[in-house]
Recover the amino acids of this structure.
């Protein structure tokens, strides 16, 4: 498969405890390898930029490092080096709270739920779960259907 849909959830954290970082690594790695599905940015706005900003990482430096095809643990090691050896626990908690607390606009929520055949009853509001549903539907449409 040359156009891979990323399926790591933004609600997943690696050993450093940073939500979305494993997904960002996967998307950026796929993008650098020319294998990311065209509907997905390799390092876009939203959660991607929130993580870079929350960790104090320069986007160009991150993308240059990703071009070296690091493993996920190597990425976390690189981040620790960039941050002087440790992450600020309060900054990580603030970033994670911003990620879990983010809600899409009503129109985006309605579009995602509609594409999945789920009625919009106001029960699924957080972007993490909506993005998961969107990814799973895209995967189904591309690979299964």
């Amino acid at each position: 498969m040359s156009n891979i849909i990323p399926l790591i959830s933004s609600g997943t954290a690696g050993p450093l405890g940073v939500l979305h970082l494993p997904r960002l690594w996967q998307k950026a790695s796929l993008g650098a390898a020319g294998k990311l599905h065209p509907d997905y940015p390799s390092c876009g706005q939203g959660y991607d930029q929130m993580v870079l900003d929350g960790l104090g990482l320069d986007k160009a430096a991150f993308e240059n490092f990703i071009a070296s095809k690091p493993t996920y643990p190597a990425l976390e090691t690189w981040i620790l080096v960039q941050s002087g050896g440790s992450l600020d626990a309060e900054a990580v908690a603030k970033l994670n709270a911003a990620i879990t607390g983010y809600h899409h606009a009503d129109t985006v929520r309605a579009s995602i739920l509609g594409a999945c055949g789920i009625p919009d009853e106001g029960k699924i509001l957080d972007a993490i779960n909506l993005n998961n549903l969107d990814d799973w539907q895209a995967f189904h449409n591309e690979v299964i259907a």
User: Anything to note?
Assistant: The chain has a mean pLDDT of 96. The chain has two domains: 9-102, 103-145. Residues 103-145 form one domain.
